[in-house]
Amino acid sequence: METENCTMIAEFLILGFSGDPNLQPLLFGLFLSMYLVTVLGNLLIILAVSTDSHLHNPMYFFLSNLSFIDICFISTTIPKMLVNMKSQKKDISYIECLTQVYFFNTFVGMDDFLLTLMAYDRFVAICHPLNYTVIMNSRMCALLVLLCWIIMFWVSLIHVLLMNELNFSRGTEIPHFFCELAQVLKVANSDTYINNVFMYVVTSLLGVIPMTGILMSYSQIASSLLKMSSTVSKYKAFSTCGSHLCVVCLFYGSGIGVYFSSSVVHSTQRRMIASLMYTVISPMLNPFIYSLRNTDVKGALGELLSELPLVHPG
Questions:
Q1: Please, how many CA atoms are within 13 Å of residue 307, restricted to the half-sphere of its CB?
Q2: 3-state SS assignment for residue 252
Q3: pLDDT in tens, 186-221
Q4: What is the distance in angstroms between the CA of the first residue and the CA of the last residue of the chain?
Q5: Which of 12, 13, 161, 294 has the smallest C-beta neighbourhood within 10 Å, fewest atoms?
Q6: CA distance 54 to 61
Q7: What pLDDT digit, counting tens, does each position of 43-88 carry?
Q8: Nearest 5°: CA angle at 265, between 270 and 257?
Q9: DSSP helix/strand/coil, 21
Q10: Which residues of 74-89 are buried (b: 16+ CB within 10 A; e: fewer)?
Q11: Residue 28: exposure state from Cβ atoms within 10 A (0-12, 13-18, ≥19)
């Protein structure tokens, strides 16, 4: 097969979940439904936080940012897959593939950072309540989120610039449902040593450091809860952490599943299903976890939905 410089490659072929034309309508309906549920659920969280003055605090500022990131996260991969399913095609242009790699890495990193910031927020609120408003002021929260954006902007840009130096063959097939960086590197014909080193170093840093921060925050929170004499105070403090813990477990659990499936399991379908957990399922379930387990969010959503204009039959 002829090898060309990547800039000469017009498109890649995304293999997707199934090549069976009879399954395409079913898969299209399934993924379209999940996409719409994800976008609607996260939009409701953003609207609830922005319209309810009781939720104008750092914890829910980070939550609304997380919901926005989740909408962007799933919008990076699913719409293109739906277009390909509808048109019965598998192609994705080289520029589209680079764009997917860039934004996918940016949004997955932002998810990681925001979950860490939310854990730190709970740590300060429970372990240092008297200094909470001073430490977690609005300016500090905005600066932290901005810093995360800047870090991920440069990290993703370096990934794309390194990928732009690779060579690919005509008709290169990517065994995935989107342009995941690791899978794209596997099908390159040129040396990907530098790309892989940078990818593993960044993945390790962005995985280990935030996870360590979350574990340390919750170990301190657990220690503070054990020292509380009031059962009511313990329950109130823990209830604010329950939703976040569920989302953290879902995100990191599915991420670890992808890592082990890529390292141990050689089945393409199993790798894609593992990736589906954190690229689609996690963003879709996050709004439900926060709305069902958090009484403040549940109340704000109830008020928001009650204020929506009802359509009466004429």
A1: 11
A2: helix
A3: 989 889 999 999 999 998 888 889 999 999 999 998
A4: 66
A5: 161
A6: 12
A7: 999 998 888 878 888 988 999 999 999 999 999 999 999 998 888 8
A8: 65
A9: coil
A10: bbbbbebbbebbeeee
A11: middle
Which single residue is written with the structure tokens 């593939």?
A: 97
Nearest CA among 183, 289, 187 for reference residue 246: 289
Structure tokens at 182: 């690791």
Q: Which of 13, 34, 31, 35 is nearest to 23 (CA)?
A: 31
Q: How far apart are CA 123 and CA 273, in angstroms?
A: 34
For 273, residues 6+ apart whose C-beta sits below 8 A from its C-beta are none
Lookup: tokens for 43: 């939009």
Q: Is 72 exposed, middle or buried (0-12, 13-18, 19+ CB in 10 A)?
A: middle
Q: What is residue 7's predicted lDDT score, i.e. its pLDDT?
A: 47
> How many angstroms from the chain centroid is the CA of residue 179?
15
Question: How many residues are listed for the chain in this entry?
Answer: 314
Please give the single-letter amino acid code of residue 11. E
Classify burial at 228, counting beta carbons within 10 Å of its beta carbon; exposed 0-12, middle 13-18, buried 19 or more.
Answer: middle
* Model pLDDT for residues 223-263, shown as the tens digit of each residue: 888 877 767 666 766 767 878 888 888 888 877 766 665 55
Q: Pairing state of beta strands 173-174 and 11-14?
A: parallel
Q: Reduced to 3 DSSP states, what percent helix, strand and coil does the chain have, rounded to the nearest 5?
A: 75, 5, 20
Q: Residue type for 116, please? A: T
Dist CA 241 CA 237 (whole Å): 7
At position 65, the amino acid (one-letter code) is: N
Global pTM exceeds 0.70: yes
Distances, alpha carbon 223 to alpha carbons 121, 228, 234, in Å: 16, 9, 11
**Could you tell me if 180 and 275 are in contact, meaning their C-beta atoms sit under 8 angstroms apart?**
yes
Per the CB < 8 A criterion, the answer to whether 14 and 176 are in contact is: yes
**What type of residue is 269?**
Q
